[in-house]
């Protein structure tokens, strides 16, 4: 019997290890796929991209499933960089930076903000933007560019500029993909509460207008940067009607189209300045649009929550008022009964007092 119990325990342990290994390999494969997508957007050297999608993927994976999956990030990043034909030492150094970036970002969000995946609080959005997108991404940019410089793939004189571009790329990966993955993972079922027509109109309209803006179809406006604000009505629509689900979807669609158009030399951000200046202007636009939409969605949620609270309080007050009315009516009815009883008692006492002298006189005779 004891041997059987030991055998069952061993099998359970082996299944748990195999499941853990499967999770690691799955995350590594997803990271590798996202990395290959990001590497197609390389800017100065193959390892520095305009947007690095694995940053958001790794952050969300470790946040939702725990730090124990960090080997998946390390393995995926290492293989992805090996495929760019760079030395193993450089690839490993970059992979360490990517892994630490995700681990530190999750730690900050969990300990400092106590992030809720729905992003329905102001501090959730602030924490995601500042602690994850701005702070933790500095780790990967620092370790990555130093690794490239030590490996002879990047001149030390170019390291500061490369650091800035790396930082912006990872920041964009966090701001574009992490909010989308977090919100849709926890609340995609809520999308069914809106009509499919409105959903299609929002996403389709955002896609068409963003293509028109960032692929230069609005030539009559001379591709002036203010044309980019034509996307903000869609962000407002998404925030009021679809909350975080809509905002993250519209922001992701617009940002991806904007990046592709700018890389192709089209759209309002490709018109003037150096490529670095164009890229920074594009990133600032993405940050402004995404954060504004998320904050607006939070404000709408808080307003609706306040309205629901007021409605509940009004309902409670109405119930209390009806209860008081019933109690007052019951009290009035009891008082009427008491008054009637008192009158009856007084009549009896008066009758007794009137009859007492005549009875005494009859006895005296």
Layout of secondary structure:
Elements: H1 2-39, H2 53-65, H3 70-82, H4 88-113, H5 122-150, H6 159-187, H7 196-214, H8 232-241, H9 243-263, H10 275-364
Helix pairs in contact: 1-2, 1-3, 2-4, 2-6, 3-4, 4-5, 5-6, 6-9, 6-10, 7-9, 8-9, 8-10, 9-10
What features would you describe in this structure?
With 365 residues, the protein is mainly α. The chain is 79% helix and 0% strand. The protein is built from 10 helices and no strands. The chain has helices spanning 2-39, 53-65, 70-82, 88-113, 122-150, 159-187, 196-214, 232-241, 243-263, 275-364. Helix 7 packs parallel to helix 9. The longest helix has 90 residues, at 275-364.
Overall body shape: elongated
What is the helix tally?
10
Number of strands: 0
* Fraction in helix: over 70%
What oligomeric assembly is this protein in?
single chain
Kindly list the characteristics that best describe this protein.
365 residues, mainly alpha
Describe the structure concisely for a colleague.
By secondary structure, this protein is mainly α. Helices cover 79% and strands 0% of the residues. The chain is elongated.
